[in-house]
Amino acid sequence: MKKDLPENIVKDVAIVIALEKESAESREWNVYLLNLNKTSMETVLVSSRGFGTHNGKEVKTSVLRHSIGIVSGNDYAKVEAIDEQVFGLTNEYWVSFYKDGVLYDKKYVFLPESVVEDNFIKLPLIDKVGVMIQ
Q1: 126: Cβ–Cβ under 8 A, 6 or more apart, which residues?
Q2: Is the whole-model pTM more than 0.85?
Q3: Rounded to an integer, what distance in angstroms lies between the CA atom of residue 77 and that of residue 34?
Q4: Angstrom distance (rounded) from CA 60 to CA 2
Q5: What letter does residue 123 receive in the DSSP assignment?
């Protein structure tokens, strides 16, 4: 039964969309996984996808799966590059990992148009600006 399963709550783990480079013509963005814990995350897997509507049509991006491996405590890992064109869609990242032999997972969702300068913060660990979901 569902009530018998342990509640493995993910704490101090974040997904960020960070601005890497900016020029007059374009901006370059990357997605990172931040481990803000003191202990390592092991066998880290990240699944990403985008979905929503664009010009009145339903749009879905490909589902991408990333095997990250180990992310040490107070460290980060690059997940993928991301194009500004998908910021108008819902972008979902499903993260699963082991910590101290226990399986954890959590879904992080960036809503359409949430990656805007009004929402930028200075991102911990990577010394860049962007949007963070914890």
Answers
A1: 16, 18, 32, 34, 76
A2: yes
A3: 7
A4: 31
A5: P
- The answer to whether 77 and 32 are in contact (CB under 8 A) is yes
- The number of domains in the chain is 1
Range of the domain at 29: 2-133
pLDDT tens for each residue of 3-61:
666 678 999 999 999 999 888 888 999 999 999 999 999 999 999 999 999 888 999 99
Expressed in angstroms, the distance from the first to the final Cα of the chain is: 28
Tell me the Ramachandran region of residue 108: left when phi exceeds 0, alpha when psi lies from -120 to 50, beta otherwise: beta
Closest alpha carbon to 69 in 86, 45, 99: 45
Six-digit token pair at 14? 């974040």
Strands 57-60 and 75-82, by their bridges, are unpaired
CA distance 93 to 73: 20
Domain with residue 52: its CATH number is: 2.60.40
